[in-house]
Every structure is written in structure tokens, then in C-alpha cells.
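Final paragraph of the annual report: two paired records, presented back to back.
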Amino acid sequence: MSWIAAADEATSADAAEAFERDRATLGYVANYTRLLARRPAVYDAWRGLNASIKASMDPRRYELATLAAARRLRSSYCSLAHGRVLVDHFGAEPEVRAITGGDGELAPVDAAVVRLAEKVAGGAAAMTPHDLAEVRGLGLDDDEILDVVLTAAARCFFSSVLDATGTEPDAAYRALEPELRASLTVGRPIADA
């Protein structure tokens, strides 16, 4: 599950609320919630930051950029979560296959967004203005480009926390179609239970 002892509902009222929120939305308590409920202020700040980034961005683009960054970081947890969202909510299985090296295809703008998110996650300090030229040339304005950068940079934080604490992807991801599950498991293995 994690190398850090999990919070439980007795940890705090905030932890109990987070657990109940997960049960209502997911049907179970996510392993990342069990970890971050130990620091409710950090968890709430993360949720707020993530919601702020998503609020001004096309939801599908957010998921594409997140998946690209998560894969670059080798975060199974985040790759599985956001790959599943793309498939379940956007019918984007061909796009997920394309991002994971399969036979799918990405539209030019989507491919450029994926490449930009990968660059941010792979080493933003080495980026130059040229790294923004492709998405700019395809019509993204500065606000849209900033949204992709913010998405990828935020994923660097969250994925790093999960991997640095050994937090395994939820066992629920075992229910994904086997080929999709295998393509999204790029780092830590899925939890057994």
C-alpha cells in the first residue's frame, strides 16, 4: 500500500471526511487518500490547486497532458487513473493507445500537447522558447500553453509524493482490460488488495 502508515478514520475528522468522499465517488478509499489524510492541509491544498488548474482547461486536454506527464515520470498510479478517465469519460482509448506506444493515433494538437507535457515532466529546466513553438504554431494561445505546463508541473508534485512513499496504485485498477492495464503500469505494480 505505502511505506508510510496509512491514516484511518480515527486519525482526524478531516481524514474521516476524505474517506467518506472517496467512498461516495469511487466506492472505496484510494491509497493516495490513506496517505495524504495524514496531512489534511496539504491534501486540501493539492485538491484546490488541481481544481484551479482544471477549471480553465478543456477536461480532455487536461487528462491527455496528465497522462503524458505521469508516463514520463513512470507513475503507474497516475497513469492508470488518468488513462482510465480518458477511456471511461472521453472514449479516448485510441489516444491512450497512441500515448502508450500502441497502434492509436493522436490529432496534431493532442500530439503536441502530449510532447509538451512530457518535456515539462522530463526536465523543465532544460526547456527553451522553442519547446513552446509547436503548440503555439497549432493555435494554442499563451493561456492554453500555461494550462498544459501547470498540469504537467502539478503532476510532477503528486506523482513524486506517491512514488517516494511507495504508495501503490489501488487494487481496483486490476479490473481494467488487461492490455490497457499493462500499458499504463509503467512503474510501481498495482496493489494486491
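The closing record of the year follows.
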Amino acid sequence: MHDTQARAQFDLSDEQRQIAALAAEIAQREIAPHIAQWDRDHAFPRDLYAKLNDAGIMGIIVPESYGGVGADYVSYALAIEELARVDPGTAVTVSVHSMICSAILRLGTEEQKRRWLPKLGGGNQIGAFALTEPDCGSDAAALRATAKKHGDGYLLNGRKQWCTNGTYAGVTMGMFRTGGGGARGVSAFLIPGDAPGVSVEKITEKLGIHTSNTCDLAFDDVGVGTDALLGKEGDGFGSAMTALASGRIGIAAQATGILAACLEQSIAFAKDRVAFGRAIGAYEGVSFKIAQMATDLDAARMLVYRAAALADAGRPFVIEASKAKFFASTAARRHASEALQIHGGYGYTTEFAIERFYRDAKITEIYEGTSEIQQIIIARSLLGKLD
């Protein structure tokens, strides 16, 4: 059920509401009937993304001049939220793909935009992100993969871990070391998925988001030209942080969608399930959980939509995106647990979708910057760097 009434308090345009309704309709028609089986099979529904592409979802933030829809970040957040209400795995696939589109729009040359955006925004290719390595996660500036000058370009070598969409990517945004140690030695590259020397070493099996593809990528003497460099040499760490800032809006929206699904299903179960002669929603032990869930859903939406609106206005939004991700992901994880508790033994079975949302929720506190990283970002914005 599309909760138009719950969103009535937000000042959304007709176009934004239409995009949200479109995403909700596609999710119900194309995902809902299959998601239980896809989750059991750990299946990446590749054909689904052709349908999302045809509907404009994959190119939602790509300008029309580059083959996309040209909608705003608020519309993007609404679409991600609606997809996540049915399948958070699909939502994160679209989120990371859109993060790559955003990075190319913000940092790319005109040639890079014309080469990649029509393929990503309307040409049925998927974008992937490759930053984390086996020995560096949150400490991204410590990465070891290298890009060494070779002829008129670079040779890329190294291993990347937990690359979302990596197996199916038409292009991967990857970070490699071109200089000395630390953040200033890192550069960002746009690497074609079919480039010789790029290979999938391992598909990662995960606790949740089973429909999202996660893999380890190997780069063995991958030759790219200077036109693959995204931004200036040595600016790759900043490029990665720019990409992640916009990506955090998507993950916050994903977490908000999980929270919305938990609330909707908890309300339905609390009205239907009878214990001791009354619907369980009549008991404060259940109703208070639902009240808190609804309050946190509104708060999460306000934070997400604010960060997205700032991005649309061309204003700084990094801190607001961190606040949105920190709050929404924490709330999603906590309330997925409460929703399972409301469902009792049924919630622990695969008969109800709550167990899947319970598994899916946790990752929102980890990827694209852990909750601890978000708190560091927020605290430093208030206190400065004290050490």
C-alpha cells in the first residue's frame, strides 16, 4: 500500500509524488511476486533492471541531455524508499548505480559524461563502486591497489572487496594509488566492465540483501587511458567521498523504506492477530512499539528529504546526508527487530517477510560509511578536529 496520507505533511511536488507512485507500482508488479524466491536463491534479477531502465528509474538523476529522466534527488530518494519497501536489495543496486551517475555528473569531463551517462541513464548498463580492500575498509586512504603510468595511460593492479554490482557492471568507479601514501596519493578511475584483466574472484554470500550482487574484483595489469581518470590525479579520495556523500542519501532512503515496510506489516499483524480475546494492537506492549516506529519513520523521512533537497539546491549536504544515514539506518535495524518481536514466532519464519527485512536492515549501518564514521563526520562538523 502506497502511504500517500503519511507523506501528505511533506511539501512534495506533483512530479515527485508521481515518481514515488511509479516506483511503488513497479515494485509491487515486478518484484513483490518473486522476491521470496529470489531471496532464497540469492538471485540477482538482471532482467528486472531492464524494466527499471525502461521506466526511467535507472536514469532518474541523469539529465535528459544525457539520456536520463532529469529528475531531482528528492525524487530519487522517494524511488529508492519505495523499492526498499519491497526489496532492499534492489534498492541498493539502484542506489549504488545512481551514485556512479552522480559522481560522473559532478566530477567527469564532458567526454566522460557523453561516453557513460547515456549507457547508465538509459542504455541498460549498471554502474559499480570499488573502494574497499581486504586490508582497508573505513580507513579508505590506506588502500594499496595501484595505478602506474604506462605509455599514454595507466596499468591498474590490485584487489577490491565487497564491490556492489561488480559482477554485472558496465563501468566501475575504482580508487587506485597513483602517488605516495595517504589520501593525496589516491586517484579515481572509470573502468569498463569488459576491460581485459578485470575478473570476478568471488561472489560474496551475505546475511541479507540477497538480490544485491556483491563481489571481489581483481585488477591484473588492466590498461586504461588518461581519459579513464575521474577528476584530477591525486583527487581520488575526495572523489570517493563526494560519491559516498550522495550515496548516503540513497542508503538512508533504503533504510527508510525498510522502516516503512516494518511499520506497515506490524500494523496489519497487530490488527489481525488475537491473543487473550483481543487484537494484540490493543495491548500497550505492542501499540507503543508501533507508535515509536511511526515517529521514527517520520523523522527519518524528514532527514532524508532535507539532505536530498539541499543536494538539489546545490548547497552543502554532506553533514545532513550523514545525519540521515545514521538516524535512518539505526532506526531501521532497531525497528526491524521490534517488528519481528510483534510478529512473535511467525516473525522468525519465512512465512512472513519480516525475517527478511530483519536480515536486510543491519547492513545499512555498515556500508557506505559505518554508523561510527557518520558520527565522526557529524561530531567534527561541530567540534572541529581536536587531536
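The longest helix spans residues 236-272. This concludes the annual technical report; the extension proposal builds directly on these records.
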